């Protein structure tokens, strides 16, 4: 039977299109418009051309913040993805332990970001925090307010505590969807634990891992609330990521033009890296 | 309705007009030649013509930024380079 083409179904997409237009496209257009102008408020704008972009591209402040962001995202992915897989592999697959583990894993995800920042800010304090006080009693020279390395360690540990659960839950969902027949076949062949992981579990998890890597990259690359609450970008500018710098520029200094230019460059970088991750991991799946 | 807060200028309006024209052009192309023309190019993975437009636009953004950062604010040559890049993407990717 010949299929009848009816493009009227496209009208069903119209509500989403309107929603995206008002929540994303119009604000993005406004940011582009602001990025080539200067303003002192009251909707009065002055043409600035490409000055803000040029200033941004020659600003050490921008490149340093970008480098911090890339290093932070790299460390986060290098820790959270293998750790998430390891925990998911060791979680029970049946029995009463399953709901207990799932609830325990979901708990950090339910806590609002600013509360997580506050928890770790107090937890790490040398005078009253459990972590900070204990470390100082043990003779460890730890002070995230003054030492950049300590500030980085605190933020990384906080992020690992907060978000590894997401990777665990996604990997666990991938693992439990593998039919028993695969494991039975591997057992008959006398496959080692590593072979089962390498040739059965990892390929079967690649779709959820793609989502996990993408989500964790985008989230860590755009991190704002937790480091802002814990360190406020300090000591000095050592934990000032792009998002913190952007808010300082746009809200603190009311430099809307430079902030808009920075937003667009930030947006392009996020799009590029996300596209590369997505393409590489999708095609890895097809080849395997 | 007052849209003065959007701070429109002629160059940005032309920029978005060009993007809209490209999207409309792609829709018309798809209407006359449905399926997106998927193929394996030099990147050795499947791309449709929508993917190729995305790669062209994203790459053009970075070409213009690199030109601005390394050479200067005269972006006409960067625009020409972006067009050559886009043609190469549509031809070989």
UniProtKB/TrEMBL annotation, chain A:
- GO CC field: plasma membrane
Could you tell me where this protein is found in the cell?
A: Cell membrane
Q: Which InterPro entries match?
A: MetI-like, MetI-like_sf, Sugar_ABC_transporter
> Which keywords, in A-to-Z order, does the entry hold?
Membrane, Transmembrane, Transmembrane helix, Transport
Task: Specify the signal sequence span.
Answer: none
**Residue ranges of domain ABC transmembrane type-1 in the record:** 66-277
A Pfam family (short name) is BPD_transp_1
Where, by residue number, does the polypeptide cross the bilayer?
Answer: 70-89, 101-123, 151-175, 208-225, 259-280
Q: What is its main location?
A: membrane
State the superkingdom: Bacteria
What Gene3D superfamilies does the annotation carry? Answer: MetI-like
Cross-referenced SUPFAM superfamilies, in alphabetical order?
A: MetI-like (SSF161098)
Which biological process terms from the Gene Ontology are attached to this UniProt entry? transmembrane transport
Membrane topology per the entry is: Multi-pass membrane protein
Please indicate if the UniProt record lists Chloroplast as a keyword: no
Q: Which family does it belong to?
A: Belongs to the binding-protein-dependent transport system permease family.
Descriptive protein name: ABC transporter permease
From TrEMBL, chain B:
InterPro entries named among the record's database cross-references: DUF2160_TM
| Domain of life of the organism encoding this protein | Bacteria
> Which keywords has UniProt assigned to this entry?
Membrane, Transmembrane, Transmembrane helix
Ranges annotated as spanning the membrane: 12-32, 53-70, 76-92
Protein's name in the database: Membrane protein
